[in-house]
Structure to design on (68 residues):
């Protein structure tokens, strides 16, 4: 199996970002605006989904607060 550094899912993106910043005195900020999330009722491929709607703007910002 070949290894790929390509991010394929939102959880992989979040994990990669967290791993990169952990231990570096860094900050991650999340904001949400009119975000809609579909929550599956099970892990089955044909699972029904509940829709959650959140108000706010999605913004993901990072900054390194380390050595300056």
């Amino acid at each position: 199996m070949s290894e790929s550094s390509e991010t394929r899912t939102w959880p992989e993106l979040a994990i990669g970002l967290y791993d990169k910043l952990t231990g570096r005195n860094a900050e991650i900020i999340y904001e949400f605006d009119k975000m809609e999330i579909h929550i599956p009722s099970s892990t089955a491929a044909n699972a029904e989904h509940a829709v959650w709607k959140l108000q706010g703007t999605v913004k993901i910002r990072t900054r390194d607060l380390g050595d300056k």
In short: The radius of gyration is 16 Å. The CA atoms of residues 34 and 46 lie 26 Å apart. The mean pLDDT is 76. Helices lie at 10-21.
